Amino acid sequence: MLPATNFVSLRAGMTFNAFTLEPFIDNLLDTHVVTNYNFSIDPGTGNSRLMRDFTFRPRTYGLTFTWHQ
Asked: What share of the chain is helix, strand, coil (3-state, %, to 5)?
């Protein structure tokens, strides 16, 4: 069973006449808990050969700029 997860994102915005600026941060806490996994099975023997773990993408930040006409 997989553990509970926490994922925090922030987004703020300001409008200046005809444009909007929105800074954002995804995965604020830079959480790397395993969210899913799977196994590769050897068809000849049925044994497990590879286990792949999936996690949240690393902390991402940026700026969204929108122009309104």
From this structure: 0, 55, 45
